[in-house]
Amino acid sequence: MASHSIGNSIFAAGLGHGTGDTAQSGEDAVTQLRIADSAKVIEASRRASESDVRGRHLSSSTLIAALAELKTDIRSGLSDAEAAARLERDGKNELREDPPPGILILFAQQFLNVIILLLVAACIASFALGEVVEGVAVIIIVVLNATISVATEHGANQALAALKGLAKPTSRVIRAGKEQVVDTSSLVVGDLVLLETGDVVPADCLVVTAADVSVDESLLTGEARAVGKSASPPSPTDEALTPRNEVFMSCTVLSGVARVVVFAIGMETRVGRIAQSLNAASQSEAKSAKSDGGSSASSKPASSGGCCARNTCCRQLCDTGKRTPLQLQLHHLGLAISATALTACIAVFIIGVLRDYRDPEHPDNPPAVQMVLVAVSLAVSAIPEGLPLCVTIALALGTHAMAKQNALVRRLPSVETLGATTVICSDKTGTLTQNRQTAVKAFVAGAGEVDITGKSDAPVGTFTTSDGTPIAGGTTPAMLALLGSVTINSTAKMLVSRFAKDAKPAAGSGDDGESGAFGPVGMRTAPQVRALAEGGYSFLCEGNASEAPLLLAAGKAGIVPDPMRTAMPCMRAIKSAAKAAEAHSPDVPFSSSRKMMATVSALPTGRAAAIATAETPLERACASLACLAGDASASAAGGPAHGEEDVASPLSPSAPSTLLAHVKGAPDVLMPLCSHIAVPDGKGLRAGPMTGAARARVADALHRFSGQALRVIAVAVRVLPGPEPFGTGDMPAGDKLRIILGEDDGPATPARSAAAAAAAGAAAEDVDLQRATGVSALADIGGLPRSSGLVLLGLVASIDPHRPEVPPAVQATREAGIRTIMITGDHVDTAVAIAKSVGILGIGDDAAEASTDCRELRDGQDAVDESVYKSNADLDEMTSRVNVFARAQPLDKLMIVRSLQRQGEVVAMTGDGVNDAPALSKADIGIAMGIAGTEVAKGASDLVLLDDSFATIAKAVSKGRQLYANITSFLQYLLGTNISQVTAILICVAAGLPILLKPLSILVINVLVDTMPAISLSVEPAAEDVMERAPRPRKQRILHGRMFTAILGHSFTLAAGAVACFIVGLVLQTGGTVLAGDLQAMATSAPGQATCTYLDYNGNWAQRDATECGLKGFKEARTMVFVAIVFAELMRGFSVRSHTAPMWHAWASNRALLGAVVASTTVALILLLVPGVSSDVMGFQPIGWPQWLIALAFGPFLTLCVDEFLKARYAVEVQEQTRWEGVRSMLAEMRTELRRVRHHVCRVEGAAAPSHTPDF
């Protein structure tokens, strides 16, 4: 799939602002370009267009001349050697980007943080006051914290870069005559690139061939409209702002398929030139601002931006990156804490100076100087130093863990929002199901319902009647005609593995030397293909997933794609071979609005067209199609030509024809266009009128198939008038479709008039079977008549079984309070069947009430714009009760998302197509498919499912809830420590006690001891009931009710315990002296004047000098406080893991926490017990076992008792709340049921149609 790979800084290089993400994707850069000043972008686009001399020259030249100048072969493209040489010469197809910030830049960024700046201020104050050891220790801790942060952030950047590589953009190219998938960055000038709907143009290209191609060029022109593209050179009368035969990098292909040749890559593309132009303009503005001297207010931003624009290092240093909502809350919380701390510091300083406060350890310091140290202690204690580091690590580990579960997070806010998701709107195909269709049933004339058996991944099987009886001859002419037509009308390719189970190459493949596990089946015959399948070789269909089961079903009937397409070659292939430079395709590709596709082929000639002599299934298929064309020579022996028997046949054109149109699509769209149906005629087929009875039989079959969760495709054909009905130039898809469907065949003829009369008679025969549903679906092609002359060949029904992991995932989301809604393009019956199988609809649910056709959202009208939809109140009523939306169009998804959001829901929406981008962007969580999704859908999403499975969404929701819960846990852990320290210091100052901890001790507790357990809490395993809780309110602040209670309860308890421990320590170690002034007097007294009684190391009472008692006893009391706080916080790590469960519940489940507690304990013991470190650095004094017991009693024992008591009370409240929530839920269900009953009664009273009517 073509896509783009552009640099991570169009916006940065062009406008002088960093992106803040070293792993930014190309889609993010283009998004930033979209939101830039539109006037600047359009002006830059104009300048880029004027400078694109080569592009203008190529677009105005003939295609042959342009290809010659680019030295490219239109059929085989470049050789591999030539592509490698051009890549070496021109470089990669990438936009210039700034290098990622280096280690030094990351290290410098760590100091642009209010918390770190306050620590630096504290360090400076310590040096100024002569506390050299403490100042050095603060520097070491700050540098260590910055080093850890840099290592973590660098690792996170590396992880994000690796995740970006998972979604590396690729392009489909033709090199050396073979289609290849290559990295978009390796495209070179002259490459032939294949584009289709949903691709992002990978480089500036010249159109070679195009079918119904339109491109969104709003990125370049500012005009939000589709721009048609063709191979024709532009004319002077064109109103488009860009040449019609050029497509440009980063623009989206909205419809159609095309083959293009690259003429510009990287910075030489139009987008690259715009970036250069914007960059030059930004630097010019910066110079102007500098010359103005910054006198005007308006020049300041320009000056700042100019500095960054001129200097990459400056830009990276000043760039703090985009903060997520959670990070913003934490940033604001940090600012609030810092402001509170500064206010408290000023108040404490004033109080201390007025009270003439003196510290016993520094009795000579004046009160003002001493209070500066106290203020520093208070500031340090208030700052959660480990918070930035913990958040960084938590988010990095969370996104990495989600990537392991196949959920690639593109935007960090989605991790937070996942925990608040209340509704998941999911696609069916590929997400709830396996996206591996297998054709299991068909409905054809003459045979009725046919069962198709055999393998789902190989063309081996049989055809039986509905009662299991094998069909004579293997299959019928009608079945062969149907399968032959779908084989021609397909862009899929059948591949076969190069090795079987015995590892031997496929015999006769001719591809054994090629790379890759699979090679094309090619021109092998049906017996050869069957032999390979029976020999253990695997088969794979490359292309549209809905076409794969049709090719395999055809293979089971003996029809191999390439030989069939050779016998009845498509016109695109004929034209491409005959007139390559001017070739255009008469085909009409599938689109979500038309819900059909058409291919034009030549009629078979020779033996393949003779039904009497046809031997192989392929020959019989060609002959059956030729019979329908009314060729007398292809009729069965003795059988009259259909043109002679039935002049009303649309297969008898007024002019000789050799072309047959093959059409397939949704039954409710295609059936109203069929005026005839294929019926048996001897050994061949003929076209009989589509009577009401025939239409009813088809409708019944369709209803049966849909009720079995089968995906049904209708197949029809029509002979085209004249040898060249499409002319020689390009034609819009709508005009081609009108010719194919018979609306524009030229003058009226008796045959056409008779066909129209037959169609009118069929409509009058059974009015109930003629519901007008096809017109609105085909409004975009000019209001086609209900019967356009198509001959229905039959229906093919495929099943896409649900993924086995989906039902448990749906049940898990339901238990988590999350509602699952299916939005699909399939028929209602098919959607309901799948919804029941995966559990979206329960056993007691009324399918009629819980499902709807999306046409009901717009009263049967086509989804042309928002004006056709019901009122908001009516839409909200429907979306509140309906869980299955069928026949959905892209705009329906957007309206459903808006309706749910109006009801207060937090919506996650899945999507894979170009038109899904608005809904993905509008949803609270946009989820794109990583396998089947287009690059546009991925660019608009917040989350990419690497396996396209719904179960991955459930895992991501669980991981999002777990991550948010873990963040609240370590936030509660860190803030509890800081608030307790601030409270304890304030109590000491207010009570006249000495400060119970030094600033260095506080910093050690906050950084070295607390940070490791806090980080380990970010990897706490999910609680058992994480998916049983109700979704978190999205606007709920991270600190709310219960959090405040837990934090304040622990903080005040620990503060009280620490102060009590300090007072007891002073009483025991200083002989009862506790006030700061008394201790200062004791410490400054002359030695030998007095003694004091204290508790010695062994628990005995002893005497010592009062001076020694004042100094050592004070330090011993501080040591006891340090022990109490450190071990209280270490034990707090086990308690804070859950708000309700006791701390001993699964206490060993988090091994990281166990290791962190052991490491922090080791650090604490080293600081307490190692001589020199304990006394000289930390200012501690050795204490004995009695002091340890006292400290542990006032610290961990007291706090754990209070914490567990608060948790037990909260657990009771939760149980009571859960009970009342159950009552409220029951009442809500009763209200919903009453509403359903009312709606059902209204529907029954207003029903006028039979219970089952077809959709055509």
Question: What does the model show?
Answer:
It is a single chain. By secondary structure, the protein is of the alpha+beta class. Among the domains are: 324-397 and 959-1195, Calcium-transporting ATPase, transmembrane domain (Up-down Bundle), CATH 1.20.1110; 407-425 and 815-948, 3-Layer(aba) Sandwich (Rossmann fold), CATH 3.40.50; 436-497 and 519-632 and 658-721 and 786-799, Calcium-transporting ATPase, cytoplasmic domain N (3-Layer(aba) Sandwich). 49% of the residues lie in helices and 13% in strands. The protein has 45 helices and 29 strands. The strands form five sheets. Strands 10, 11, 12, 16, 17, 18, 19, 20 and 21 form a nine-stranded mixed sheet that branches. An eight-stranded mixed sheet has the order 8-27-26-25-9-22-24-23, with helices on both faces. Strands 1, 2, 3, 4, 5, 6 and 7 form a seven-stranded antiparallel sheet that branches. The longest helix is centred in the last third of the chain and has 62 residues, at 1185-1246. The chain is elongated. The two termini are 35 Å apart. Keywords: ATP-binding, Ion transport, Magnesium, Membrane, Metal-binding, Nucleotide-binding, Sodium, Sodium transport, Translocase, Transmembrane, Transmembrane helix, Transport. It catalyses: Na(+)(in) + ATP + H2O = Na(+)(out) + ADP + phosphate + H(+).
